[in-house]
Every structure is written in C-alpha cells, then in structure tokens.
C-alpha cells in the first residue's frame, strides 16, 4: 500500500536535510525539472475540467457513496 502524502513529504524533507548544503541548489534544480517534465507529459487539469469530468461521471451514474470508498481499507 502506498505511503500517505504526509509520510512522503517527511521522507523528502529528511533526504533534503541529509544532502550537503553545497548540493542543495542542484537538488532543487533536479526536483524542479522533474515536476516540469511530469506536468508536460500529463498536464494537471484545471478546476473547470475536473468539475466537468466529475459532473459527467455523476450524470452517467459512475459514482460511489463515500462510505463505500473506504470499505476494506483496514483489512489485514
């Protein structure tokens, strides 16, 4: 199961803190380039696009109630 976003952020912060200060500007450039590359491959949808997609799903009955989304999440 993937780690929660907060855990990933903590791991990233720990790696940054372990990186010698003289290399942090290079690390920042690397992270920035990575983010730009990811966005270029698959741009993030605008709020309007996200709403339209959700509305289309709702009209087509491709939705689930919130209580069903977490079913089995605590399973061993």
Automatic annotation (TrEMBL):
Taxonomic superkingdom: Bacteria
UniProt-recorded name of the protein: Uncharacterized protein
Organism annotation: Thiocapsa marina 5811
